[in-house]
Amino acid sequence: MRGVRRHVAIVGGGINGVMSAWALARAGHEVELFERDHLMGATSCASTKLIHGGLRYLEGGSFGLVRECLRERGWWLARAPHLTHPIGLILPVYRGVSRSRLVLRSGLWLYDLLAGRSNIGRHAWLSREQLAARAPALRTEALLGGFRFFDVQMDDRRLGLWAAEQARAAGVVTHEQCAVSGLAADGTFQAGGRRRADLVVNAAGPWCQSLLRDSGLPSRHALDLVRGSHLVLDRPVKDGFVLQVPGERRICFVLPWQGHTLLGTTEVRQGLDEPIACSPEEERYLLDVYASAFREPIGASDVLERFAGLRPLLDSGSVNPGRTTREYTLELHERVLTIFGGKWTTARVLGEAVRRRAERAMTGG
Asked: Does residue 56 lie in a domain region?
């Protein structure tokens, strides 16, 4: 297929659409990307601002996904050091809260092992006294100590726009505020008029399934739409923290962010007809999680910003949205290739998978 130039249309200007467009353009294809609003303007700019391996995915046995995420974490860090940086994360361990010290140590040991040569720092145990000295704002009642490990922090919107710049430099033509309203299996589509491509990649994220349905294209897969809400607090924090939510198996992040504190996230199922916004219940939930670990009083008056994103997770039949798979799959309808699922961290390898599947489809493979 290399050397055979084909015309590919990408629907959706989030990180998966951008990275797919970049991969196809690097392979020599003529690529146009259509975004109904602005690039990186929806889900992809409403993340927790981390490029991470997914420590908690180990509990579900997703070792391959974690290994891939850790490898890709290193790729982003090496390619865009001006928009990414290692961040130390402290995971406090309290008596009687969720996972034991032994379970956490085993998970972090495996996390370091799976990172291999791309590891950016090994985990370490901090005693109760060491942790209290490093983070005096932490509650110390029932505190046993904590682990410190490393991941990568990013500016999701700026990093996505950087990737879009690379895609444009490779030849991708982007059309913003140009919605695709319908698709056909033969590669025709509506975007300010009738157009045609050798292949259309449906990378519309949370809207990919509704686009197929509205176009009369049946799908074998489905999305599990999960809202993740965040708060930006008017207070600084030096270290990042991973908090085990009392009474649950969930975790929340407390991260330094632009001189303030980023707190998130939630996991609430919703439909496309509902507003993608942090609800009062989610705000109270996040503030309660923060208060469970920090002594400083906190309330709604400390909230500078609220934002939410709708994750297009691949429906795996899980009752608990926190256990829904973070894997992805590709589905082909003749000349329409749809992306279901995916993660920010693994958008590059997803883009390469799209490129390979697209080239097979365009040659009848």
From this structure: no
What is the DSSP code string of 272-303? TTS--S--HHHHHHHHHHHHHHB-S---GGGE
* Section 80-95 average pLDDT: 96
Element (H, E) at 147: strand 143-154
CA distance 94 to 232: 25
Provide the residue type at 205 as one letter. G
User: What mean pLDDT do residues 270-296 have?
Assistant: 96
Q: Is 90 exceeded by the pLDDT of residue 320? A: no
Residue 175 structure tokens: 């059309």
Q: Return the pLDDT at 364.
A: 77
| pLDDT tops 60 at residue 1 | no
Cβ within 8 Å of residue 272, ≥6 positions away: 206, 207, 210, 225, 310
Q: By CB neighbour count within 10 A (0-12 exposed, 13-18 middle, 19+ buried), where does 116 fall?
A: exposed
Q: Is there a single domain that holds both residue 144 and residue 252?
A: yes
DSSP character at residue 58: G
- Report how far residue 185's alpha carbon sits from residue 315's, in angstroms, rounded to the nearest whole number: 23
Q: Which residues contact 330 (CB under 8 A, 6 or more apart)?
A: 337, 338, 339, 340, 353, 354, 357
Q: How far apart are CA 151 and CA 50, in angstroms?
A: 7
Shared domain for 113 and 103, answered yes or no, is yes
Residue 21's SS3 state is helix
For 45-75, the pLDDT digits (tens) are: 999 999 999 998 998 889 999 999 999 999 9
Q: Is the pLDDT of residue 120 over 50?
A: yes
Please tell me the predicted confidence (pLDDT) of residue 44.
96
- Confidence (pTM): 0.94
Domain count, the chain: 2
Same domain (yes/no): 254, 232:
yes
Q: Which residues contact residue 133 at a Cβ distance below 8 angstroms, ignoring those fewer than 6 apart?
A: none
- Enclosing domain of residue 115: 87-153+223-315
Q: Is 337 helix (H, G, I), strand (E, B) or coil?
A: strand
Question: Which CATH number characterizes residue 133's domain?
Answer: 3.30.9.10
